[in-house]
Design goal:
- The chain is mainly beta and 400 residues long.
- It has five helices and 27 strands.
- The chain is globular and about 50 Å long.
- The N terminus is likely disordered.
Length: 400
């Protein structure tokens, strides 16, 4: 869309929003990106409520369908790679819809090099002629495809949309996938029987990875371990969450994953945490009884965000047989891998709206870490303790 057309659409949106704001308050805020009133914690039903009776549900093939909502949403499929040779990588498709008026798709890749002397490689490209297969299990666009196999246990990720990072990788599930609770969703709204928003994450916590990302300096072999997450934010992202913590920890035996968000004050600054621990062929435990703590805050001299210096991540739950499970990762994060200005990476049309939101800071930072000094997972399963070193990739995101 050229700038004149963008300006026309934005002018139309502004006219509609001005006429209807008072009558439509929360729902317009949801699609328009305006600041929300204070509804309080009664306007959110955390997935933790479901997890009280159904801690987690094993993913079947149908759980992996794209929602591709025709209203405001951001939906992503993200693949994280931890190569045997030390590289950390990511491949991601973003499907974003603004008010049902404009839908865009983006393909992102990132490579962190083990020597830390080599600059991170980042590619982010808009996708044309995007679509889905008949079952909405596979995504395609010009020069890009993310395909789920017939057995529902392997994704093939291919992209030639950017010559700087040509992707040809397969990700095979090595342990069952899961989402927390019955349907994996946290709901938002003053009438929770008819919510105006939702948040969902579905995980493959432990995967085997094969393949390469071809770069100008040569092919990067990503043979190793991986993690896959399918996320759906069925509302404006900055309305659902003010900050995030994300954990992907892989050892030779275990995988520990976690996604935590804290809502803005409009929903009572409610903390929602979903995650689990797996090993080959088995989910050890999963649920919403986890926590992420920044045990040291060193801050950022370039802004007032509380950048973490050390962390403590906790998991607790039960095996399917009812045995108690507890686990901990703690330690220093070391020097951050990167700081991402999220607003600089989102599609232009989305940025044009979100960038003018009242009450949202002009920069949204995501700090990414992979400590060179290895941390350990300490896990107790039915009273038997295991301690194992592994590779950590974590993110701390600050929005408002």
């Amino acid at each position: 869309m050229d700038w004149i057309k963008q300006k026309s659409v934005l002018s139309l949106l502004g006219s509609i929003f001005n006429r209807t704001m008072r009558a439509k308050g929360p729902r317009v805020a949801n699609v328009a990106g305006t600041q929300e009133p204070i509804y309080g914690p009664s306007a959110i039903r955390s997935v933790a409520k479901q997890a009280e009776t159904v801690p987690w549900t094993e993913l079947r093939k149908e759980h992996l369908k794209w929602a591709a909502m025709d209203s405001t949403c951001v939906e992503t499929q993200t693949f994280y790679f931890m190569a045997d040779k030390g590289h950390i990588g990511m491949a991601q498709v973003i499907y974003s819809n603004v008010a049902g008026i404009r839908t865009t798709c983006q393909f992102n890749t990132k490579i962190f090099y083990p020597d830390r002397d080599h600059s991170n490689l980042w590619s982010s490209d808009p996708l044309d002629n995007y679509g889905f297969d008949e079952q909405k299990l596979s995504f395609y666009a010009d020069g890009c495809a993310i395909s789920l196999n017939e057995g529902g246990d392997t994704y093939t990720v291919k992209s030639v949309v950017n010559e700087a990072s040509i992707v040809n990788i397969t990700v095979t599930r090595a342990a069952p996938g899961f989402h927390v609770g019955q349907d994996g969703k946290t709901y938002f709204g003053t009438d929770l029987d008819h919510p105006w928003g939702s948040m969902k994450h579905a995980f493959w916590p432990r995967c085997e990875v094969e393949g390469t990302i071809a770069t100008s300096s040569g092919d990067v072999d990503f043979k190793g371990r991986g993690f896959f997450v399918h996320a759906l934010q069925g509302m404006k992202p900055h309305h659902a969450a003010a900050k995030w913590n994300f954990v992907d920890f892989q050892t030779p035996t275990f995988s520990a994953v976690m996604m935590e968000f804290t809502t803005p004050p409009s929903y009572g600054s409610t903390v929602v945490n979903v995650g689990g621990i797996a090993r080959d062929g088995e989910i050890i435990c999963a649920g919403a009884s986890n926590s992420a703590e920044h045990t040291e805050v060193k801050g950022d001299p370039e802004n007032d965000w509380p950048e973490p210096g050390a962390v403590r991540f906790l998991w607790s739950g039960k095996t399917e047989a009812g045995a108690l499970v507890s686990a901990e990762i703690k330690g220093d994060l070391g020097k951050r891998l990167d700081r991402v200005d999220v607003m600089a990476k989102v599609p232009g049309f989305v940025k044009a709206i979100v960038g003018n939101v009242a009450g949202t800071k002009p920069y949204i930072y995501q700090d990414q870490y992979a400590p060179q000094k290895k941390l350990s997972l300490r896990i107790s399963i039915d009273g038997v303790e295991h301690v194992e070193e592994g590779d950590l990739f974590s993110e701390a995101t600050f929005i408002s």
